[in-house]
């Protein structure tokens, strides 16, 4: 069997994913030591092999999903949406994680992220004749906000990421920009107000020595993160400070693969702060290369969406590409100190788990659309060539 028949879809996206997964294997192996030894009876080699298995499983998932007609996902978008809602309610009631035998534990928000993008794309495609009406916009917002509200108490940054990706899809899908801009402004004010209140409550608890009652789960965590970002303590050995030191030590060309020092001191070096380890070992040049890989991936998604004649396929690809790119940007901004800690991983590079696998499923849907688009374009080219040859034969045979 030819390789091209196995790896269907956009070849550039496949190359980008291959490079990201190679970087992932190298950097996770280099940075997972301290985290592994912090777990009783765990060895770095064991965790690395688990990550390797997840990466391989992700390749299998992408190959399998890319062979499925992407329209199939539209048919079950509504069912998937309600299943995701049930999982989010269960997680909200019993904890952030859900455990399934064999698969292990996972955060339902990772499933909701993929399902909601497919669902919103389907809604925008079905209502294309009425997409500019206020009723359609409100209906889309209700479905989106319902998921965001369930994700928000346990994971504010993921909720914001999901909302922003779906919101951009609505703009691309043709909703009335007047409604879009007004609600975006309201959303930004609400986020700033939430972070400001969290910061104030945390600061007050520090000054009074009394723990303030939380309105939302993990509100104190966000208050601490924003406080630490605004009031950095350079002398403390925090994850953020060690990430900055790792970046400073890396310089332009880095200290070499496997020569990291600060990864040995960070429990989240393999996950939230792996971008800092990349820069320490491969320098600013390596950091720029990683950024360019994500940018190329997003550019190919937008290009694919533009060439896709089906409205559902185009919006799905645009949404999936947007959520991958936004998450990558957030993680990189946290590592260099532009944003406070969010807990967002670096897609296809951070230590693998179900989040890595589910993101791979999203990439598989992108490749499914690409396979359909390029397949039809190839058929059109073949038909055109046959028509030209036929015309030439008729011309040659005419006396």
Estimated radius of gyration: 23 Å
Largest beta-sheet characterization: 2 strands, antiparallel
Residue stretches low in confidence (pLDDT < 50, at least 5 long) are: 391-399
**Helical amount:** over 70%
Count helical runs. 15
Helix/strand/pairing category? mainly alpha
Q: Roughly what fraction of the amino acids lie in strands? A: under 5%
Query: Based on DSSP secondary structure assignment, what is the total number of beta strands?
Result: 2
Mean pLDDT: 86
Sequence of secondary-structure elements: HHHHHHEEHHHHHHHHH
The gross shape turns out to be globular
How far apart are the first and last residues' alpha carbons, in Å? Answer: 47 Å
Give a brief outline of the structure.
The protein has 399 residues and is mostly helical.
Task: Provide a descriptive summary of the structure in words.
The protein has 399 residues and is mostly helical. The chain has one domain (17-49, 76-358). Helix content is 73%, strand content 2%. It has 15 helices and two strands. A two-stranded antiparallel ribbon has the order 1-2. Strand 1 (98-100) and strand 2 (104-106) form a beta hairpin. Helix 6 (77-94) runs antiparallel to helix 7 (108-126) and helix 14 (311-335) packs across helix 15 (354-397). The protein is globular. Residues 391-399 have low confidence and may be disordered.
């Amino acid at each position: 069997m030819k390789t091209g028949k196995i790896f269907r879809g956009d070849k550039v996206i496949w190359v980008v994913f291959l490079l990201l997964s190679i970087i992932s294997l190298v950097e996770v192996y280099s940075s997972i030591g301290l985290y592994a030894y912090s777990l009783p009876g765990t060895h770095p080699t064991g965790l690395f092999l688990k990550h390797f298995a997840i990466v391989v499983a992700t390749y299998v998932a992408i190959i399998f999903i890319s062979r499925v007609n992407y329209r199939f996902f539209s048919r079950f978008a509504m069912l998937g949406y309600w299943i995701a809602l049930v999982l989010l309610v269960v997680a909200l009631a019993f904890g952030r994680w859900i455990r399934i035998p064999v698969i292990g534990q996972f955060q339902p928000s990772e499933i909701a992220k993929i399902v909601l993008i497919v669902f919103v794309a389907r809604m925008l495609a079905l209502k294309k004749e009425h997409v500019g009406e206020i009723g359609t916009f409100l209906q889309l917002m209700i479905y989106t906000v319902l998921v965001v509200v369930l994700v928000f108490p346990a994971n504010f940054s993921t909720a914001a990421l999901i909302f922003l990706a779906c919101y951009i899809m609505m703009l691309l899908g043709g909703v009335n920009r007047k409604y879009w801009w007004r609600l975006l402004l309201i959303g930004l004010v609400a986020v700033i107000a939430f972070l400001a209140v969290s910061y104030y409550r945390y600061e007050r608890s520090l000054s009074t020595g009394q723990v303030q009652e939380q309105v939302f789960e993990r509100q104190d965590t966000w208050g601490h993160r924003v406080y630490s970002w605004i009031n950095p303590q350079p002398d403390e050995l925090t994850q953020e400070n060690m990430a900055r030191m790792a970046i400073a030590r890396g310089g332009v060309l880095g200290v070499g693969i496997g020569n990291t020092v600060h990864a040995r001191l960070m429990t989240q070096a393999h996950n939230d702060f792996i971008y800092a380890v990349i820069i320490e070992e491969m320098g600013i040049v390596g950091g720029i290369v990683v950024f360019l890989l994500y940018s190329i991936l997003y550019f190919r998604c937008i290009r694919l969406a533009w060439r896709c004649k089906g409205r559902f396929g185009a919006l799905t690809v645009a949404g999936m590409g947007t959520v991958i790119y936004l998450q990558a940007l957030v993680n990189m901004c946290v590592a260099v100190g532009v944003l406070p800690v969010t807990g967002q991983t670096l897609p296809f590079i951070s230590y693998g788990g179900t989040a890595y696998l589910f993101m791979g499923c999203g990439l598989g849907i992108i490749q499914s659309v690409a396979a359909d688009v390029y397949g039809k374009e190839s058929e059109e080219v073949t038909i055109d060539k046959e028509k030209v040859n036929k015309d030439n034969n008729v011309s040659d045979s005419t006396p």
